[in-house]
Amino acid sequence: MNTNFDVIVIGSGMSGGWAAKEFTEKGFKTLVLERGREVRHIKDYPTTNMMPWEFEHRGDIPYDIAQANPVVSRCYAFREDAMHFFVKDTEHPYVQEKPFDWIRGYQVGGKSIMWARQTQRWSDFDFEGPARDGFAVDWPIRYSDLAPWYSYVEKFVGVSGNKDGLPNLPDGEFLPALDLTCVEDYFKDFIGKKYKDRHVIYGRCAHLTQPTEIHLQQGRGQCQKRDLCQRGCPFGGYYNSNSTTIPWAERTGNMTLRPFSVVHSILYDDKKGQATGVRVVDANTRETFEYTAPIIFVNAGALNTNLILLNSISARFPHGLGNDNGLLGKYVAFHNYRGHISAEYHGHLDSTTDGRRPTGAYIPRFRNVFRQETDFLRGYAAGFGAFRGTEHDYRGFGDSLKKNLDHGSLGPWRVGSHMMGETIPKETNTVSLDPSLKDAWGIPQLKIDIGYDDNDEKMLKDFFAQLTEMYTAAGFTNIKTGDSGQAPGLDIHEMGGVRMGKDAKTSLLNKWNQLHACPNVYVTDGACMTSTSTQNPSLTYMALTARAVDHAISQAHKGV
Amino acid sequence: MLVNRRSVLKRLALVSAGAVLLPACFHNPAKPAILTRNFQLSGDQYEQLEELTAVLIPSGATPGAREVSAHRFVLKMLDDCFSQADRDKFLRGFGQLDNASQQTAGAPFLKADATQRATLLTALETKKLPDQDLAFFYATTKKLTIQAYMSSQYYLTKIQVYELVPGRWHGCVPVKPTVA
Known about the structure:
The complex is a heterodimer.
Chain A: E1 7-10, H1 14-25, E2 30-33, H2 63-68, H3 70-73, E3 95-96, H4 124-127, H5 129-133, H6 143-157, E4 159-160, E5 174-175, H7 182-194, E6 201-202, H8 213-217, H9 245-251, E7 255-258, E8 261-269, E9 274-282, E10 288-292, E11 295-298, H10 302-310, E12 330-333, E13 335-336, E14 339-345, E15 351-355, E16 361-363, E17 380-387, E18 390-391, H11 398-406, E19 409-410, E20 413-422, E21 430-438, E22 444-449, H12 454-473, E23 477-483, E24 495-497, E25 514-515, E26 518-523, H13 538-558
Parallel strand pairs in A: 1-2, 1-11, 2-7, 3-22, 4-5, 11-26
Antiparallel strand pairs in A: 6-16, 8-9, 9-10, 12-24, 13-20, 14-20, 14-23, 16-17, 17-20, 18-19, 21-22, 25-26
Chain B: H1 2-17, E1 20-21, H2 24-27, E2 35-36, H3 45-56, H4 70-80, H5 84-95, H6 97-105, H7 114-125, H8 132-150, H9 153-159, E3 169-174
Antiparallel strand pairs in B: 1-2
């Protein structure tokens, strides 16, 4: 088998799929390495058309599995219908210096199969955050660098949204939005009038509400509002790698996809002064292989990308590839999802909803956006939802109970929000290689040492206070706030460790996502993030990837 | 033909799995057996459970708990989704059922007539019986019976129709007047 390629892409998920698509489309022979199994669109979605009664535990996870896998069992989507897409704790152990719920999906498509599909753009209020507020390092790029790539990605992926005209959440290339519910609309109007700088919008999301020609070419169809996305969609109604970028790359004839390929390390040639390929352990046979290519894209998922670089040791880089400044694996951050709030609304009782909606309303960050106004840095975005459902009286037994079960009544509107808080990257929030523990493939286990700080606690309190104020003013009742107390990681928005920056002394990657010290290696997944802002990050990873591939190709054509 | 072959395979699987075969199928071979890995019911408990679910959600003009095999779902969940401690508690409570029936209605549960069973369940509903294990057994059985009924194919195709592919979403529509 050929072991030499034009490009090696490590990972086939959200960002790896994009690297594969971009390179193969431009004629580059591309090896895509995926540590997990193959998941073919539709064919490998075993539960996708199952009815509720066909699940023997009606969605619940058996006790033995939950006990043996406490981390992944805390994930909201780890349910009977999608559990086969999640990594079990027992299969891939890691070391927690502090509690960290590392949620992973090892398969072709990675976590893009089960993601929550929210796709908000960043603005300069996000990119300029570290410089303005004096944390981390300045981003080497601004919104204008990424804007055309956001558009490029959005058109291909298919993003549903409204043009809301908000400077802090730029508009994009949108397919039609789905309706907000009556009470979401009411809240949107109310908040828009009461506060000049707070908005409730329809969250932009990767659903084909009205497919265009490019989506039909991909073989995808209109979102059918099943709201069962985590199972994989037989219509291709939402974006994942499996339905879109991977088959697209495959059709060019330029992609070699190798599942069950655990990347051990990236090979560095001291004489050539560049990375030359990767060492791979076959997940099943444990055999070791080496593949070579002049360009390497690392898209293994934020923390695994850190792991691979840390494990890529050479005479030139004794502390990990590109790690001249000792900052590799440091300044890891995430999103604070601890806060939630719920309430009732007893207006609009003559109205309800019809059908299902796999998307939701969104409250962009309003704290400390245009100026610093609180005693904590940065802020939080929030989800928002208002629904009513049939409610039943479960008291009693016999004919009266049966009658109540057969005839429910429409309850009040139930409203709720959850916070998505920016966390400040800190040198003390780190991942590193455990000096002794190894995984089943002989690769050091990742040691994770990440915690909340005082800024996060203050922000949580502010979320409760501000949302309570907004809910109260809107006439919502029975308001309840809650701190889930969840560990970092369960947000599934871990980022950083290989941050971008202008200066090779204080960052790992340059403005094109190349390692400063080894520029033929690009990192374009969550590991590259200098700060986290509050937006769901996948769209930004995809845009950064497309932009970085464009750069790599232009360099290759120049013969660099 | 395929169906027959499948049921043969299933039966083979039952035999070879070597797990506990619930006694009910010996009492009444017409009743389908279920396998449990983590506990064994004793005596006529399988029948008791089926009858209890049928008191909770009776059959009649329309199917009830019995027709949706709610008791089998209760046992499945008890076997797979409960801790050993909760399973033990459930079974201890279950062991109290006949006593409680005798005490409140004057007859063991399977011998009790409809009125006597209603007397027992009224006592359980109103928490007149102090035994915590029994209360746990009853609350758990009731919760799972309701879940089995409301997530059954019958309920989700005839009562509150579940749509796998709604194909539509309307965020604000008038509430339809309920049909009495």
